[in-house]
Amino acid sequence: MNSYTAPLWISFKTVLATTAITFILGIAAARWISRYTGKLKPVIDGIFILPLVLPPTVVGFGLLLFMGKHGWGGKFLALFHTSIVFSWPATVISAAVMSFPLMYMTTRGAFEQVDTNIENAARTLGASEWKVLYSVTLPLAWPGVLAGTILSFARALGEFGATLMIAGNIPGKTATIPVAIYFAIVDGNMKQADILIIIVMCIALASLALLAYLKRPKPRDRGLIVNPVQSDILHAGRNKNNHS
Amino acid sequence: MLKVRINRALPGFKLDVAFSVDGEVLGILGPSGSGKTMTLLCIAGLLSPDSGFIQLNGRVLFDSSKKLNLQPKDRNVGFVFQNYALFPHLSAGKNIAYGIRHQPKDEVNRRVQLLIENMGLNGLQNRYPRELSAGQQQRVAVARALAPEPDILLLDEPFSALDSLTKEQLEMQIQELRKFYHGHIILVTHDLEEAYRLSSRIAVYDAGKIAQCDLKDKLISSPVNQKVARLTRFRNFLDGVVTEIKDKQVWVNVALLKTNLQVAANGHKNLAINQAVMLGIRSEHIQAVPSIGQNILRGTLNSSVENLALINCYFDLKTNINSIYRLETAFPKSVAPSLSNGSSYYLYFPPEQLVIITG
Fold first, then answer.
1. In what order do the strands lie in the sheet with B355-357?
2. In terms of CATH architecture, what is A5-243?
């Protein structure tokens, strides 16, 4: 693996793992908070969104303290004789924390757009909460969920500050594309920087194109939309025949 | 049989009702915000009462004293929402099949096909909800609710968003429904005529309480209080005092209009002399007659509004305090006298149409 493909491969693994984690956690958190009615709702909501408003370096520093030797997370991992600071999993943790708010916010917004009556109809038709989620809420909120997934994917791909704080720049181990670009430029290695920049731009444009493609109107949403009242008059003859 | 006792308090509103339904259509009639929909949500388990008891065909669905609260999915209650709440991402056929999807495929297809025929939805099976008219959507919603053969069908203002032609057709459909669905039905509405046409018994809601629950004919002929009378379209009310009771006839002195009115007091056994009562009469029961006599008062026509079949007239009656009493009548066009504003007319209050309201 050379100095071009190594950051690519690391970023690929990191972004894949991160997107999977934020997808599941983001949906779970959005579902939970949109049904939670307690007093702490704004506080919890704020904590979930916090990484989005804080400078990434601050989040990275916080993670470093938490995951370091003297932090709770670090002490917990020490029980298993392991540590993740400056290792590959740290790139996933920093990217996941930074991209989670985008997934959570977008998905939550999409869930809240779903008509409660439609979910309630499913419940009265014998659907469990789990069934309601995957057969009604998710399909109806899908464009929003998808947008959240692609946004958090892009955010994970571009993650730099927090990753640098907690994962560092270990070539072939924790150096993701953005980190590699930064250090290539610092080292004056412009050729490597250029190639990595072009690759990142291609991925970013491709994900935007994918987003546009997936959000295009489906066949069932196109075509004949008749004013209900008008169409009742159109169908009146047929309805009468059905009655007789 | 469905037995319901529900208590639920919200800031500024308290729902406190108890009733039962047994193999019939119960109409729940009341203005918006009187707790009608909340009652249905409690029965379906979509909302939890603060306290109470709900039992359906012997199964306890909710019992606050035993902390028992069955989930909506386990209640076997069919619910038709006001906005129908169809699944927009599923075709009409798949919407109907949603509640029975765990059954064998042949059985699902058979039941869906049967409901499609019964609800007059032939040929619409593969359409998505947005490709259906409002009336068709409503029929899909009813078919979907009926597919799992619920013990009770709850209809939440099912006709409120429809034009009158579609409404008539769908009302017929609901009546037809009794041929193949024999469970209990609760119909929530704010339309008296709709409740009267479709249900056998009507519960009148007023600010979270049941003001009266009776067979529909009893309800419209003897409202227990003025609120119920107003909701059942009594337009004219007169305060009076009972002066004489003889056989089934009661005379009531209406001091305001300086007159004694004779009333047929069917069913009113516990009236007493000098008891203060209120008389109510519907606008369509007042007749115009050629000359003065018992139960006939003189009024001056103030204004009139012509409707399709009736003419609504507003008469001014002289009172003992130098003010006027505004009386509303509705004459069928065929028997209406020639009307000119400012002229006097003799107005007859038939004794059998005057209703004594004691509450």
1. B259-264, B249-254, B236-246, B276-281, B355-357
2. Orthogonal Bundle (1.10)
Q: Based on the fold, state whether residues B270 and B178 are members of the same structural domain.
A: no
User: Are the Cβ atoms of B120 and A243 closer than 8 angstroms?
Assistant: yes
Q: How far apart are CA A237 and CA A13, in angstroms?
A: 62
> Closest Cα to residue A93, out of A119, A111, A71, A115?
A71
Task: Judge: B176–A228 Cβ closer than 8 Å, yes or no.
Answer: no
One domain for residues B192 and B241: no
User: Could A232 and B120 be called an inter-chain contact, meaning their C-beta atoms sit closer than 8 Å?
Assistant: no
CATH of the domain at B28: 3.40.50.300
- Set of chain B residues whose Cβ sits within 8 Å of the Cβ of A128: 73
For residue B279, the domain's CATH number is 2.40.50.100
Per-residue pLDDT of B214-237, as tens digits, reads 999 999 888 888 889 988 889 999
CA angle A46, A49, A55 (to 5 degrees): 115
Residues in chain A closer than 8 A to B147 (CB atoms): 125
Same domain, B216 and B98: yes
> Are A119 and A132 contacting, i.e. CB atoms less than 8 angstroms apart?
yes
Interface list for chain A against chain B, based on CB atoms closer than 8 Å: 115, 117-118, 120-128, 135-136, 139-140, 220-221, 223-226, 228-229, 231-236, 239-240, 242-243
What's the domain count of chain B?
Answer: 2
Whether residues B18 and B68 fall in one domain: yes
Please state, in angstroms and rounded to a whole number, the distance separating the CA atoms of residues B126 and A218.
15
Same domain, yes or no, for B119 and B198? Answer: yes
Look up the pTM and report it. Answer: 0.84
Last residue of a domain, one of B210, B230, B250: B230
In a shared domain, residues B226 and B242: no
Locate the chain A residue with the closest alpha carbon to B174.
A243
Q: Residues of A27-46 as b/e, b for ≥16 C-beta within 10 angstroms?
A: bebbbebbeeeeeeeeeebe
Residues B144 and B41 in one domain: yes
CA distance B310 to A163: 80
Question: pLDDT per residue over A88-138, tens digit each?
Answer: 999 999 999 999 999 999 999 999 999 999 999 999 999 999 999 999 999
Torsion sign across C-alpha atoms A85, A89, A95, A97 = negative
Domain closes at, from B230, B264, B296: B230
User: Dihedral of CA B336/B342/B343/B347: which sign?
Assistant: positive
* Helices (H) then strands (E): counts for chain A: 12, 0
Q: What residues make up the domain containing B183? A: 2-230
B99, B133, B148 member nearest A235 (Cβ): B133
Q: Kindly provide the ipTM of the predicted complex, given to two decimals.
A: 0.86
CB contact under 8 A, A243 and B165: no
Nearest to B88 among A122, A140, A242 (CB): A140
